[in-house]
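pinging the channel bc i need a second pair of eyes. not urgent but kinda urgent?? the chain im working w is below, pasted from the shared doc
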Amino acid sequence: MIFSGKFRDPELSPATGISCVIKQIKTTATMKQTYLTVVLLIFTAAGLTAQPEAPMEMQHQMTEVWDPEVPVVTPGESPREAPSDAIVLFDGEDLEREWTNSQGGKPGWMVENGCVTVVKGAGSILTKRVFEDVQLHIEWRTPSEVEGEGQGRGNSGIFLQERYEVQVLDSYDNRTYRNGQAASLYKQHAPEVNACKKPGEWQTYDIIYTAPRFNEDGTYFTPPTVTVLHNGVLVQNHAELRGPTVFIGIPEYSVERHGPGRIMLQDHNNPVSYRNIWVREL
């Protein structure tokens, strides 16, 4: 407020005029403060009277999922028998229906007495189908007549997607490097225990395999994982692979993007036999 030095009321002195103005300002401020206080009280009262609704009480139906219904699979009569949704890769008779040699021709292994046996020098055999995530059941037997020692005794292998090996070996009273014995993920993970039976006895692997997923640059987004039950004993528990199986070298250096792949049974020059091979795609 600006004063010109002249007052309308000649009886009022300048000091008296200023005092009046200050009083008016104080009165206005008091009114504004009172107004704000009233508004605040109104909103406070509204908040006290308008209580939020209580949350709905949980019912058991709220966490029950009904659809889609879980599909039905009929299990085999025993754990070694194929369930209804399995693909039977070898039934003890017809090997050519599902398997080829490495050149895509007739497999050269011997089929006899319900099993197929490695023929030295015939080469590995591979499935005609390709797979990613699978549950694989396979039974194998090393020769009852023991020959050789270490890696030279009853040696073969099961390769998932043609790259990742679960070792087959006669590891009954047969010392070798721990990450190369039976049920090892070769040169990467030793089995938790040695569950091998005697030479000449049939043994089982139940393998749960999850294929890798890849980043744009070809590295693993999620690495391949393998669970193995050897003769019903858990020996590999969701083990992560570092890369493909290599005999010499570092697995990480061999990682490259790939898609679905075949299952391969290895010819390692020992007459290892296989039977009752089935797989479920997961």
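so Residues 87-281 form a domain with the Jelly Rolls fold (CATH 2.60.120.560). and Residues 195 and 233 are 7 Å apart (CA to CA). — does that match what u expected or am i reading it wrong
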